[in-house]
Design brief:
The complex is a heterotrimer of chains A (251), B (642) and C (215).
Chain A (H helix, E strand, L loop, with lengths): L2 E10 L8 E11 L4 H14 L22 E2 L2 E2 L21 E5 L8 E3 L2 E2 L2 H8 L21 H11 L6 H5 L6 H13 L7 H14 L10 H5 L7 H16 L2
Parallel strand pairs in A: 1-5
Antiparallel strand pairs in A: 1-2, 3-4, 3-5, 6-7
Helix pairs in contact in A: 2-6, 3-5, 5-6, 5-8, 6-8
Chain B lengths: L14 H8 L5 H4 L3 E5 L3 H13 L2 E5 L17 E2 L11 H11 L6 H21 L24 E2 L5 H19 L2 E4 L2 E9 L2 E9 L5 E5 L2 E4 L20 H8 L4 E2 L4 E7 L22 E5 L16 E2 L1 H5 L9 H13 L11 E4 L1 H7 L1 H19 L8 E10 L2 E2 L12 E3 L17 H23 L10 H17 L13 H15 L3 E2 L1 H21 L11 H25 L8 E2 L13 H4 L1 E6 L8 E6 L14
Parallel strand pairs in B: 1-2, 1-9, 2-5, 9-17, 18-19
Antiparallel strand pairs in B: 3-4, 6-7, 7-8, 10-16, 10-20, 11-15, 12-13, 12-14, 14-15, 20-21
Chain C lengths: L1 H7 L1 H26 L6 H11 L3 H32 L14 H4 L1 H21 L7 H9 L2 H28 L5 H30 L7
Helix pairs in contact in C: 2-4, 2-8, 2-9, 6-8, 8-9
The chains are: A alpha+beta (251), B alpha/beta (642), C mainly alpha (215).
Chain lengths: 251, 642, 215
C-alpha cells in the first residue's frame, strides 16, 4: 500500500439554473487502495472540516451494480479503467502528482442538479414507454413451459446486464442513448416473452428516446468502450433491426 | 399492546388458501377510490406497487434514489429459492419450509414461512413471464444450483446478478404502471415520518431531496418496503443510503419492532483496509465450496502465505467441524473467523482477515475449472484488492449483511398500526434468527407480488376508512415535527466547523460500538457497556455535529445526518433486545449460552418467542412484549455441524 | 404520413443515410462496370455509352432518381452533421477511448469533397459536354491534363475513405452485426472501397501513364 498526492479539478454548480465552474482542490496522502468515491469522501470530510460545501455526487451500492454513480474523469465516463464503474475504480490507477479533472455526465437530456449530480430520469421514461412485457401479476404459465436455449438466454442476459448509469450517453459524441435503449429492446426481442409486443415496443421506445433530446448514432463505439458492463453495440444493430421491422411490418 | 398475529386456523398447508378465501375483497370498480402509498422501490416495493396498480388501486410510490431501479435489492448476487423440484431431487414446499424454519433456528412463525414456500413457485413463473433472463440448461429448461449448503438444487439464478435481474423485472412492471397512470412515482423523496389519523396510518411526510421541500402525501394505507438497518454498524454490505429512518419513524409512531438484534453477518467479505473505508463488499458464499479457510498456527507468524508450510497452517473449520468443514453455515463461519482474529491469528495489514485458499482446488481441478467457476469473482476481488486469488490466497472477513429483525407484522403483513404494512427486509416475519442464502429475494417478491394484494383487499374491505386530505391538521403537525428536527440537525452550522465533529465521525463511533458489543458474539457485560455508551455518543451528536449547508437545497450531509440520528436512537433497541435474549440462536452467539464445546446453545424453554419492542418515549426505556412461537409441524432441534 | 414521422426519428434518419448510401453504392457498381470498358479500348467504351444513351427516357428517369437519392443522402447527412456539433466538445478534457478511424472522423469532409467532385464531373461529362464530341474521346481529352487527372484521383481516394466507414456503418444501421460475419464485414470495409478505387482511380492513371497508348 502506498499513498499519493493529487490535484483535483472538480465541476461545481449550485443548481441547474446557475452557471458552474471548476474548483481546484489539493489532496495529500491518498491511499492507493482507496476507491475513487472514497477519495471524494475524504475530500468531502476535508471540505466539511474547513466549513466549505462538500461536493454533491450520486452513489449508492458501491459495488458497481446500482448504476447510481458516475462522472467523467479526465474526459472518460467512469474513468480510465475498462468495464468498471466509478465506485469500483481504485486510486492505484493514478500516480502521485496527477491532476484529475472530474465533470458531471453531460447531455441535454441530463440536466445538472448539483455539482456532479445529474437527473437521468429520461432513461426511466424510455423504459416506461415500453421496456417491459405487459403481464400482470398472477396467471402466468409455468417457468419451464417455454424452453429458451442457453445461447439465447445468455445473449438476453448480456443485454439485460445494463445498469442504467448513463455513461453511454455521457461518452457519445452525439449524446445518444442508443446503447441503453438498444440493450433493453434486445433483451426483450431475444426472449419469447417479449415477442408479442416487439413492434410497438421498438417504435415507442425510440420515439421517447428522441423526445427526451438524445442524439442519433454515428457508429463511433465510444458507448461500448465506456460501458461498465461491456454491453456490445450489437444491441444497437438489433434495435435498428427491430425498428425497421416495426416500420415495415407494423400495422 | 395487543399482539394478534392473525394466523389462520386449520392445517398448515391449507392456511393460506383458507385465509385468501376468508379475506374480504374490494369490488374492481371501487379499487380506484383507494390510494396506497408505497415507500421504497426495491423488490418488495416495486412488486407491490406494480401489483396493486394492476388491480386498479391508485398507488403513490416513493424512493430516495434518482430512479426506482437503484434500490439495494439490485446487489444480491446468488439467486432465489423456489420449491419447484425441477431437478427431481426430493424438494417440496414442505422441505423449503422446513429448511427455512430450521435455518432460522426456530425463531420464525410456521404459518408465514409455509406461505413463503408455497408462493415461491409462482414467483419464478412471474419473473420468467416478465422476461427475466434466468440461466438455462441446454434443453431450454431453467437451471438450478444448490446454494448455501442446501441439499437440494432449488436456487434459480441469472449469472451473479440475480437481484439485479429480478429488480429490473419488478421495475419494468412498475414502469408499465407509471406509464398507464396507475402509479405516480416520486423519485428523490426521503420519508421523514408517517402520519397517523384516528389511529390509522393515513400518509407520510417526505423531504424532497432536490428542493428541500417538506411534502405531505395522504392515502388510505401505507406500505413500508424500506429494507434493512445494517448500516447502523457503519460498515456493512448495504448500500450507502440504506437506513432505518422509515421503520424507526413508524416505530416511534406506534409500530412495534421485532427482534432488532437479529443481524446476519456474512462470512465472505473483502476485509477492511483502512479507516477511510466506506463500505464492505460481499464475495459470493459459493467460494467456500472450493476454498479452504486457514490462519497461521502461530500468531507471531508474519510470513507471506506462500511461505507458510502446511504444518504451520491451522485449517480451523476443517478440524473443528469435520463433517461440514468449510461449508458450515454463515454464522458458524463468521464467528470462528472473528474468534481466530481475536486470538491474534488474523492476517493482512489489519490482522482482521483470514485466508481463503484455492491452492488445493487449483491443484485438484486445474486452473481452467476454477477460473470458470469463480473467474468473475476473482476479477472483482482483484479490482478491489489488487491481488490475484489464483496466485495468493484470498483474504476474507465477516461483515454485516442482512437484518432479520424488523417491524412486527401479523400474517397480513400489517404492523401494530392499522393501515401500516411492512414488506420485505423491513419486516421481521420469515427468517427467524438467521436467513438462508437465496431467501431474501424470495421473501421480498412473495410479499410484494402475492401476499400484500390479499391483505390490502381485506383491510379496505373490512374497515371503513373516512377520507383524509394532506391538508388535515395531523399532517401539519407532523410536518412541523419534521421541520423542527431538521432545524435541530442544522443548529450547529452557524458557528462553523471548529471544534465540531462530522456526521461520519459519529457514525463510525456508533458503528464500532455496535460491532464490538452487539455483533456476532455478545455478552452481558459488553451489552451493558454499550447501553451506557450509546447515550453519550447521542449527546455528542446533538451537541456538536457539524452539518454544512442549509435545508432548502440538495444537502447530502443533512440526509446522512438524519439517518445517523435515527441509528443512534434505534441502536438502543438493538442493544436492549440483545441483552434480553440470553440465549445463542441463529446468527449470534450469546457467550453465556454455550455448550461445553463452545458451540451456540439455544434455549427453547425461555426464548422461543419473538421479542416485540414498543417505543415508549424519547426518555423512557422501551417495553418488550412477547409473541410466543408455536411449533405444531416441526420439532425444534439443536443444530450440529460437527 | 408514417414515412415523414419515420424519417424524423433518430434511427429513421440513419436508415435514410444507409438506404440512400446503399443505392448510391449500387449505382457506383453499375457505373464502375460500364467504365471498366475504357480498359478495353475506346471502341468498346463508345459502344457502351451509345447503348446507354439509346434509352433517353430511362436515363432521364434514373438520373432524376439518382439526384433525389443523392439529395437525401447529402441533406440528412448535413442535418446529422449540425446536430452533432451541438453536443460535441462538451467536456473540459476531451478523450477518445476508441481511436476513431480517420474515415469516420472525416465523413462530412470526404462527403463534401465528393459533392464538389460530382458537380464538376457531371458538368464535364454530362451537362457541359461539348456537342459532337464522342464521350470516349472526351475522356481521353480530359485525362491528358495532369491537374485534372490528379483531381480525379484525389476524389476517388476521398470516395474510398468515405466508403470505408460508410459501408460498415450502413450494415450496422441495417442491423447486420453478428460475430460470425463481423470478420467478413471488416474485410469488406477494406475490399469494397479498394475495388472502386482501382477501377475508377485506374482510369486517369491509365491515361497519364501512357497505358492507354492504343486506346
Amino acid at each position: 500500500m502506498s499513498s499519493i498526492d493529487l490535484t483535483l479539478k472538480i465541476w461545481r454548480q449550485k443548481n441547474n439554473d446557475s452557471l458552474g465552474d471548476f474548483e481546484t482542490y489539493i489532496l495529500r496522502d491518498i491511499s492507493t487502495d482507496m476507491s475513487f468515491l472514497e477519495m471524494i469522501d475524504v475530500l468531502n470530510e476535508q471540505l466539511t472540516r474547513e466549513g466549505k460545501d462538500p461536493v454533491a455526487f450520486d452513489h449508492d451500492c458501491r459495488e458497481g451494480i446500482c448504476g447510481m454513480c458516475g462522472a467523467v474523469v479526465d474526459g472518460v465516463a467512469h474513468g480510465p479503467d475498462r468495464e468498471t464503474t466509478l465506485c469500483q475504480l481504485h486510486m492505484r490507477k493514478f500516480k502521485s502528482g496527477d491532476t484529475i479533472v472530474i465533470e458531471p455526465f453531460r447531455s441535454i437530456a441530463f440536466p445538472i442538479k448539483k455539482d456532479l449530480m445529474v437527473d437521468r430520469s429520461a432513461l426511466d421514461r424510455i423504459i416506461q414507454a415500453g421496456g417491459y412485457v405487459s403481464v400482470n401479476t398472477g396467471g402466468t404459465v409455468d417457468g419451464n413451459s417455454i424452453p429458451i436455449g442457453t445461447e439465447t438466454a445468455e445473449l438476453a442476459m448480456d443485454a439485460a446486464a445494463c445498469i442504467g448509469c448513463g455513461a453511454c450517453v455521457a461518452s457519445c459524441p452525439n449524446s445518444a442513448a442508443m446503447l441503453f435503449t438498444g440493450a433493453k429492446i434486445s433483451q426483450l426481442s431475444l426472449l419469447p416473452q417479449g415477442l408479442p409486443e416487439r413492434k410497438e415496443r421498438a417504435r415507442s421506445m425510440v420515439a421517447q428516446m428522441d423526445k427526451e433530446g438524445f442524439g442519433y448514432c454515428s457508429n463511433e463505439k465510444e458507448c461500448e468502450a465506456v460501458c461498465p458492463k461491456g454491453i456490445s453495440i450489437r444491441n444497437i444493430a438489433r434495435m435498428n433491426r427491430e425498428f425497421l421491422r416495426s416500420l415495415l411490418l407494423g400495422e | 399492546m395487543e399482539l394478534n398475529s392473525r394466523i389462520p386456523s386449520g392445517p398448515l398447508a391449507e392456511k393460506w388458501d383458507s385465509h385468501r378465501f376468508q379475506s374480504k375483497l374490494v369490488n374492481p370498480a371501487n379499487r380506484r377510490k383507494f390510494r396506497i402509498i408505497v415507500v421504497g422501490t426495491g423488490l418488495a416495493g416495486a412488486s407491490a406497487a406494480a401489483t396493486l396498480a394492476e388491480l386498479g388501486y391508485k398507488v403513490d410510490a416513493f424512493c430516495l434514489h434518482d430512479s426506482p431501479r437503484r434500490a439495494h435489492s439490485i446487489a444480491a448476487q446468488g439467486g432465489i429459492n423456489a420449491a419447484k423440484n425441477y431437478q427431481n431431487d426430493g424438494d417440496s414446499v414442505f422441505r423449503l419450509f422446513y429448511d427455512t424454519i430450521k435455518g432460522g433456528d426456530f425463531r420464525a412463525r410456521e404459518a408465514n414461512v409455509y406461505r413463503l414456500a408455497q408462493v415461491s413457485t409462482e414467483i419464478i413463473d412471474q419473473c420468467v413471464a416478465q422476461g427475466v433472463p434466468f440461466a438455462r440448461e441446454y434443453g431450454g429448461t431453467l437451471a438450478n444450483r444448490s446454494f448455501g449448503g442446501a441439499q437440494v438444487s432449488r436456487t434459480f439464478y441469472a449469472r451473479g446478478q440475480t437481484g439485479q435481474q429480478l429488480l429490473l423485472g419488478a421495475y419494468s412492471a412498475l414502469s408499465r404502471q407509471i406509464n398507464s397512470g396507475g402509479v405516480s412515482m416520486y423519485n428523490r423523496r426521503e420519508m421523514m415520518d408517517v402520519v397517523i389519523v384516528d389511529g390509522r396510518a393515513r400518509g407520510i411526510v417526505v423531504r424532497n431531496m432536490i428542493t428541500g421541500a417538506i411534502e405531505s402525501h395522504s392515502a388510505d394505507a401505507v406500505l413500508l418496503c424500506t429494507g434493512g438497518y445494517g448500516n447502523a454498524y457503519f460498515l456493512s454490505t448495504n448500500a450507502m443510503a440504506s437506513n432505518v429512518t422509515a421503520a424507526w419513524r413508524a416505530c416511534k409512531r406506534g409500530a412495534a419492532f421485532a427482534n432488532p438484534s437479529f443481524v446476519q453477518i456474512h462470512p465472505t467479505c473483502i476485509p477492511v483496509h483502512g479507516d477511510y473505508q466506506s463500505k464492505l463488499t460481499l464475495m459470493s458464499e459459493s467460494l467456500r465450496n472450493d476454498g479452504r479457510v486457514w490462519v497461521p498456527k502461530n500468531k507471531e507468524d508474519k510470513r507471506p502465505p506462500a511461505q507458510i508450510p502446511e504444518e504451520d497452517r491451522d485449517y480451523y473449520l476443517e478440524s473443528k467441524y469435520p463433517s461440514f468443514g468449510n461449508l458450515v453455515p454463515r454464522d458458524v463461519a463468521s464467528r470462528n473467523a472473528k474468534e481466530q482474529c481475536d486470538l491474534g491469528k488474523g492476517v493482512g495489514s489489519t490482522g482482521l482477515a483470514v485466508y481463503l485458499d484455492f491452492g488445493d482446488a487449483i491443484k485438484r481441478d486445474g486452473e481452467d475449472v476454477i477460473l470458470r467457476k469463480y473467474g468473475n469473482l476473482f476479477q472483482m476481488y482483484e479490482k478491489i484488492t489488487d491481488s490475484n486469488p489464483m496466485v495468493e490466497p484470498m483474504m476474507i472477513y465477516p461483515a454485516v449483511h442482512y437484518t432479520m429483525g424488523g417491524l412486527w407484522v401479523d400474517y397480513n403483513l400489517m404492523t401494530t398500526v392499522p393501515g401500516l404494512f411492512a414488506l420485505g427486509e423491513c419486516n421481521f416475519s420469515d427468517h427467524g434468527a438467521n436467513r438462508l442464502g437465496a431467501s431474501a429475494l424470495m421473501q421480498g417478491l412473495a410479499d410484494g407480488y402475492f401476499v400484500i394484494s390479499t391483505s390490502i383487499g381485506n383491510y379496505f374491505g373490512s374497515e371503513t376508512i373516512s377520507p383524509v386530505s394532506s391538508t388535515d391538521p395531523a399532517f401539519k403537525e407532523v410536518e412541523n415535527d419534521v421541520d423542527t428536527r431538521l432545524q435541530k440537525l442544522l443548529q450547529n452550522s452557524s458557528g462553523g466547523p471548529a471544534g465540531k465533529v462530522t456526521v461520519d465521525d459519529v457514525h463510525k463511533e456508533v458503528g464500532r460500538l455496535l460491532w464490538d458489543n452487539c455483533g456476532m458474539s455478545r455478552n452481558r457485560q459488553g451489552l451493558e457497556h454499550a447501553l451506557e455508551e450509546l447515550p453519550k455518543i447521542r449527546d455528542k451528536f446533538w451537541s456538536s455535529v457539524y452539518v454544512p449547508g442549509a435545508g432548502e437545497d440538495i444537502n447530502q450531509s443533512l440526509e446522512k445526518a438524519g439517518r445517523v440520528a435515527d441509528f443512534l436512537e434505534f441502536g438502543e433497541f438493538m442493544i436492549r433486545d440483545a441483552l434480553s435474549r440470553e440465549e445463542s440462536c441463529g446468527c449470534h452467539l450469546r457467550e453465556e449460552s454455550q455448550t461445553e464445546e463452545n458451540e451456540a446453545l439455544r434455549d427453547d424453554d425461555n426464548y422461543s418467542h419473538v421479542s416485540v419492542w414498543e417505543f415508549k418515549g424519547d426518555d423512557q426505556a422501551p417495553e418488550m412484549h412477547k409473541e410466543p412461537l408455536v411449533f405444531e409441524n416441526v420439532t425444534p432441534s439443536q443444530r450440529s455441524y460437527k | 404520413m408514417w414515412f415523414v414521422s419515420f424519417i424524423k426519428t433518430s434511427i429513421g434518419k440513419k436508415l435514410v443515410m444507409a438506404a440512400s448510401g446503399f443505392l448510391l453504392l449500387s449505382f457506383l457498381a453499375i457505373h464502375a462496370f460500364g467504365n471498366a470498358a475504357i480498359y478495353m479500348g475506346s471502341k468498346y467504351f463508345q459502344i457502351y455509352a451509345d447503348f446507354l444513351h439509346g434509352f433517353p427516357v430511362l436515363v432521364l428517369i434514373f438520373g432524376v432518381g439518382l439526384l433525389v437519392i443523392f439529395i437525401a443522402h447529402v441533406g440528412v447527412g448535413l442535418l446529422l452533421f449540425f446536430e452533432k456539433r451541438k453536443t460535441a466538445s462538451r467536456y473540459e478534457v476531451q478523450t477518445r477511448v476508441v481511436e476513431n478511424t480517420f474515415a469516420s472522423r472525416t465523413m462530412p469532409y470526404t462527403g463534401a469533397w465528393i459533392f464538389i467532385f460530382l458537380i464538376i464531373h457531371v458538368f464535364a461529362f454530362n451537362i457541359g459536354k461539348p456537342e459532337g464530341v464522342q464521350i470516349s474521346m472526351l475522356v481521353q481529352q480530359y485525362f491528358s491534363g495532369f491537374f485534372y487527372s490528379l483531381f480525379y484521383i484525389i476524389s476517388f481516394i476521398a470516395l474510398a475513405i468515405h466508403l470505408n466507414h460508410g459501408f460498415w456503418s450502413m450494415l450496422q444501421t441495417f442491423g447486420l452485426n453478428h460475430p460470425r460475419y463481423n470478420t467478413l464485414i471488416s474485410a469488406l470495409t477494406i475490399a469494397v472501397p479498394v475495388i472502386f478505387l482501382v477501377i475508377f482511380g485506374g482510369i486517369p492513371i491509365y491515361f497519364m501513364t501512357g497505358g492507354a497508348a492504343g486506346y
